[in-house]
C-alpha cells in the first residue's frame, strides 16, 4: 500500500488536472487513516469548493480550522468559501482572521542558523571599521570674522 504522502501526491495530481471528485475521494481516504492530516483536510475543502459544493467546503474548512486555528490559509479559504456561498459578513470575519494570522506570523523572532551551515550565517563585515580621529581639521569657513566698518 502506498504511503500517505504518496496518496496525497496522487490526490494533488488529480486536483491539478481538475479531477476534483477523484481528488476529494483520495483525500477522504487519507483522512480516514489519519484524521489529523492538516494538508489533506485543507485540500479537501478546496476540492469541494472547486466542485461548487460550498456547504461541504465550509464544513471541511472548519475541520482544518480546528487542527490549526491560527493558520492564515485556513481563514483565507473559509473567507472564499463563505463569499461564494453568499455569506459576506462571515467571509469578512475570516478575511480579517487571515490578516491577523499573517501579522502574528511576522512577529516571531528570527531563528538562528545552524552552526555548521555557512550559507545560513549572518554576513560579516569584510573590512574593519574605520576609526575616526578625535580632532577634526580646522574649518576656516566656520571661523567668526570681526565685522569691519561698523556695519
Question: Secondary-structure blueprint of this entry?
Answer:
Blueprint: H1 4-16, H2 20-33, H3 38-50, H4 54-67, H5 72-85, H6 88-106
Helix pairs in contact: 1-2, 2-3, 3-4, 4-5, 5-6
How would you describe the overall organization of this protein?
With 151 residues, this protein is mostly helical. The protein has 6 helices and no strands. The protein has helices at 4-16, 20-33, 38-50, 54-67, 72-85, 88-106. Helix 1 packs antiparallel against helix 2, helix 2 (20-33) packs antiparallel against helix 3 and helix 5 (72-85) packs antiparallel against helix 6. The longest helix is centred in the middle third of the chain and has 19 residues, at 88-106. The model has no long low-confidence stretch (mean pLDDT 82).
Amino acid at each position: 500500500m502506498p504511503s500517505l504522502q504518496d496518496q496525497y501526491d496522487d490526490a494533488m495530481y488529480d486536483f491539478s488536472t481538475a479531477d476534483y471528485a477523484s481528488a476529494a475521494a483520495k483525500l477522504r481516504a487519507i483522512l480516514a487513516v489519519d484524521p489529523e492530516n492538516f494538508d489533506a483536510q485543507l485540500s479537501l475543502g478546496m476540492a469541494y469548493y472547486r466542485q461548487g459544493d460550498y456547504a461541504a467546503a465550509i464544513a471541511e474548512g472548519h475541520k482544518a480550522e480546528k487542527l490549526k486555528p491560527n493558520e492564515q490559509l485556513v481563514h483565507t479559504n473559509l473567507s472564499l468559501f463563505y463569499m461564494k456561498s453568499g455569506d459576506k459578513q462571515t467571509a469578512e470575519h475570516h478575511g480579517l482572521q487571515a490578516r491577523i494570522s499573517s501579522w502574528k506570523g511576522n512577529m516571531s523572532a528570527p531563528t538562528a542558523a545552524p552552526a555548521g551551515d555557512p550559507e545560513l550565517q549572518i554576513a560579516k563585515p569584510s573590512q574593519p571599521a574605520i576609526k575616526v580621529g578625535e580632532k577634526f581639521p580646522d574649518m576656516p569657513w566656520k571661523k567668526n570674522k570681526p565685522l569691519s566698518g561698523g556695519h
